[in-house]
Amino acid sequence: MCGKSPTQIHHVFFGWGNRQNSEKYGYVVGLCMYHHTGSKDAVHCNKVLEHKLKRMCQEEFEKNVGTREEFRKIFGKSYLEGGFKW
Prior knowledge:
This protein is an alpha+beta fold and 86 residues long. It has one domain. Helix content is 44%, strand content 12%. The protein contains four helices and two strands. It has helices at residues 18-25, 33-36, 47-64, 68-75, and strands spanning 7-11, 28-32. A two-stranded antiparallel sheet has the order 1-2. The chain is globular, with a radius of gyration of 13 Å. The two termini are 21 Å apart. The relative contact order is 0.15.
């Protein structure tokens, strides 16, 4: 995000086997500590940013890999449906 180092690997989808799926499909991002876990703007503390990354990855998946149903089977849910309180 900001280009500062050292970077930490952020798995866009995490928990219950989704780290491995994030790696398999390339849904990992190198983030500095500030943007990963070290501030209120960090992806693990900012639900809006976290959801935006998940939506971007799902859009890429549906464009280049598979269907929305296949995405749901792999990652457990769709991030392009339903409401999200911004």
